[in-house]
Specification:
By secondary structure, the protein is of the alpha+beta class. The protein has one domain: HIT family, subunit A, CATH 3.30.428. It contains 6 helices and 6 strands. Strands 1-2-3-5-4-6 form a 6-stranded antiparallel β-sheet. A hairpin with a 5-residue loop joins strand 2 and strand 3. Helix 4 packs antiparallel against helix 6. About 30% of the residues are buried. About 5% of the residues have low confidence. Bound molecules: zinc ion (2 copies). The site of one zinc ion (ZN) has 5 residues, from loops. Pfam families: DcpS_C (PF11969). GO terms for molecular function: hydrolase activity; nucleotide binding. It comes from Suillus luteus UH-Slu-Lm8-n1.
């Protein structure tokens, strides 16, 4: 049942999309190394690269990834990435800035912008990726893949498989971990 829900949210995983947790076998690591020509790269610097999603959910849909293999937003903690908490927070804020500047280049009005992370196990590729989108979604059903669930009672976010970028930044700022459960 839970598995079915996951497949519904992220689509049935391709074999190459799923089991991988290291840079040798990671398809997204290929975007900045061996398989660059397979990706439609829209933005790049020393530390990050952004490319068009091969199965867009929205009018514009890009993936922004770090050029370091980090599994997911849930693995963004001091212990996992061996980086001081404030630097993790700075990097995610940087991702937000880059996302906005990409959407600027596509002339997307601020009210039509949506950015955020899927939270394991609701992520199809095990390499941290920020969804950078210009709304509307191509069909209303896609909206459900990227829900914005408001927090309550001190939580930034309620139960959800998606953390909007601002929520993720505020959770990390407090030194907490981004999880499916309220956080
Ligand atoms: Zn990777
Ligand atoms: Zn995702």
């Amino acid at each position: 049942m839970f598995q079915k829900l996951i497949h519904w949210v992220i689509g049935k995983p391709q074999p190459t999309h799923y089991q991988l947790g290291n840079s040798q076998s990671c398809i997204f690591c290929g975007a900045y190394s061996t398989n660059r020509s397979d990706f439609d790269i829209v933005w790049e610097d020393q530390e990050f690269v952004a490319f068009r999603d091969i199965r867009p959910s929205a009018q514009q849909h890009m993936q922004l990834i770090p050029k370091t293999h980090i599994e997911s937003i849930r693995k963004l903690s001091q212990k996992d990435v061996k980086m001081p908490q404030y630097l993790i927070w700075v990097q995610v804020r940087r991702m937000e800035e880059i996302g906005h500047s990409i959407l600027d280049t596509f002339n997307v009005p601020v009210s039509k912008r949506k950015m955020g992370f899927h939270i394991p196990p609701f992520n199809s590729v095990l390499h941290l990726h920020l969804h950078v989108q210009a709304l509307p979604y191509i069909s209303p059903i896609y909206r459900l893949k990227y829900p914005f669930v408001r927090g309550f009672g001190g939580y930034e976010k309620g139960f959800s498989w998606f953390a909007e970028i601002g929520q993720a930044i505020r959770i990390l700022e407090k030194g907490h971990r981004v999880t499916v459960a309220p956080c």
